[in-house]
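Sequence and structure are no longer studied apart. As an example, we show below a sequence and the tokens encoding its fold:
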Amino acid sequence: MKKAISRRAAFKKITGLWALAIAQRSFGLFGFFKNKDNELEPDASGRVKLSLKNVSYQQLMNNGSSVKVEIKGLGKPLILIRKNKDSVLAISSKCTHLGCEVSLPHNGIINCSCHGAEFKPDGTVVKGPAKQNLKKFRTEVDNKEITIFLK
């Protein structure tokens, strides 16, 4: 025979699950539960196209600006950095030390908060423990669109 659960215990469980769901939706609490609504999907040839008309990417119209972009199948977002009118750099945000997600560039440094590795905005290692540069992806910039080549 099953033991009946009290109203108080049921309320605590429901409240806890509700709070967890809100935290997940708001903050992407766990990597495997991340909100995938904004993920971009590569085409069959491994290309991803970003429209600079999309509000999420409009800041890439400005030199020196950067954003993270979720792409299906990569696990960690890409960091896009606008170098100049004709050039956007795309690098992985997966630290080459143990795979933690690195930050966007700040004061000329991309930081991995897990173990303190630092990278230049082009993905080059500045300070360990990482020994390898962040992975780069080829890009093409057209008037209002950025194409990222994943393959």
